[in-house]
Amino acid sequence: MTQPVKFGLNVDPNTGGLPIAERITAIADASGLNLVGVQDHPYNDGFTDTLALITWLAARTSHVHLFPNVANLPLRPPAMLAKQAATIDVLSAGRFELGLGAGAFADGIAGMGGPRRTAGQARGALSEAIDIIRASWAGEPYSYQGSYYQVPDGRPGPRPGLHLPRRPGDDQQRPDRIGQSRHRRGRRQRRRGQRDLQ
What we know:
- The protein is α/β, with parallel strands linked by helices and 198 residues long.
- It has six helices and seven strands.
- The chain has a three-stranded parallel beta sheet, with helices on one face.
- Helix 2 runs parallel beside helix 3, helix 3 crosses helix 5 and helix 5 crosses helix 6.
- The two termini are 28 Å apart.
- The C terminus is likely disordered.
């Protein structure tokens, strides 16, 4: 599936740089750029919360789409992240995009109370998070029991206009893999992911 090329700018969520973040976002909005990304490192004591900053920036713009570059899953439980993303999407009139990250800075994550995961565990947790976010955005009650995340009684809402998150490599799936069982494909992706993330 071919995606159109999109262009945008990056905003750092520095507490002392909010006027700069607002100005960069205004420039992107006024000049017709597609995206503004905001890095998500909750353990950085000099940064504001990324999702709160995105909501603030969305209220000050009208065209540009905003996204976390990328949301730190170990510190943002996926059921709650799905609700936050859907809420921002509703508040911004459909201008929120969700980028997901498995968590690259183990010490910072652990220091904030998050789990310390190996590369393979991080990839497995990312896969489970995508399942939960997809279930949340489907709009029906659901439950989920995984190795990393459990949602015994998920009650989703609001319903976003967002596209369902794609797994890494979904748009590059070879025809001979389309019919594979999820288990076989998942095992191969986990092996590949362990190499990619190390």
